[in-house]
Specification:
Length: 301
């Protein structure tokens, strides 16, 4: 990849984050760009380019300051972040537990921290495909489809993942967009099939689910089946997000509650299952601010 392509990619990624009001993430990408440009001999003396990047960073900083002055932003210490990671890392497998911890940070309002940790696990973790799937879910659930698309394009350009893994992720995004009628251009990944992907990062006992159809046994939705998009998944633990304006629906989910009739949908199969509510938290930051995250642990099959 040429220097020009790397610069253009980082700028587009930063602006996409900025357009979705994910300002800290945007600034992070601009800082990454500035470091790249100042270090590379071919661009280190291009004052106009460097000044332009610094100007964009200042603009984002000003927006962050305005928001901080207008609203109280939740600040969580490193100790509390570690506590969240540990409390919500249930898997005995260390690699899966690390991903669960990163996802927990995002769900508890620390979107940027969770994304940063998942990005690290994609690059350096033992299960990059599993980390990549959860990073895309994080973008789709708490940011926007545009952010997820840009993330995928960056992986394709930088060749951080194998062609088989990229093919699998491309299919994952295509199915997500098709179901919602979203048009998005995703780069091709070559001829290698998804079946050839290194699937060690995927759970062996459950498919990647796209939605859950839950039939309620009491309350205002008694006898009705409501479909929810899966926002996060780690093995048999899945999460859904419910908007705050659907309070009656939110109230139906209680810690420990059994859900005996769940229709699980993946890209290749639909099957019936059951499970229990294992968590319920309020989203405190980002575009989904005020919504509720419901964790469901599915029974083994």
């Amino acid at each position: 990849m040429s220097m020009k392509e790397r610069i253009q990619g980082l700028v587009k990624e930063a602006e996409t984050y900025r357009s979705m009001s994910l300002l800290k993430q945007s600034k992070g990408k601009y800082m990454e760009l500035l470091a790249l440009v100042e270090k590379d001999p071919s661009t280190s003396k291009q004052k106009k380019l460097i000044d332009d990047i610094k100007s964009r960073i200042r603009a984002v900083d000003n927006e962050i300051t305005e928001i901080d002055q207008a609203t109280e932003s939740p600040e969580i210490s490193e100790d509390v972040q570690d506590l969240i990671r540990n409390l919500f890392s249930f898997s005995p497998n260390q690699a899966t537990a690390a991903i669960e911890g990163a996802v927990a940070l995002a769900k508890f309002g620390q979107y940027e921290k969770g994304v940063k940790e998942l990005e690290r696990l994609v690059k350096d973790g033992p299960t990059p495909l599993q980390a990549a799937i959860n990073l895309l879910r994080c973008h789709l659930s708490l940011a926007s489809p545009d952010v997820a698309v840009e993330q995928y394009k960056q992986w394709a350009v930088r060749e951080e993942l194998g062609k088989g893994d990229l093919k699998y992720l491309r299919t994952f995004l295509e199915n997500y967009f098709k179901k919602r009628g979203i048009e998005a251009e995703l780069p091709e990944t070559g001829e290698e099939s998804a079946e050839k992907a290194d699937m060690e990062g995927k759970s062996d006992d459950i498919l990647d689910l796209s939605s859950l159809g839950i039939q309620f046994e009491d309350g205002p939705y008694k006898g009705k089946t409501v479909e929810f998009d899966v926002s996060f998944q780690s093995g048999n633990k899945v999460s859904i997000i419910i908007p705050s304006n659907k309070k009656a629906l939110v109230d139906l989910f209680k810690q420990g509650q059994r859900l005996s009739n769940i229709q699980c949908t993946s890209s290749i199969a639909i099957f019936n299952g059951s499970g229990a509510v294992s968590g319920k938290t309020k989203v405190t930051t980002g575009p989904k601010h005020g919504s509720y995250n419901i964790d469901i642990t599915l029974d083994g099959r």
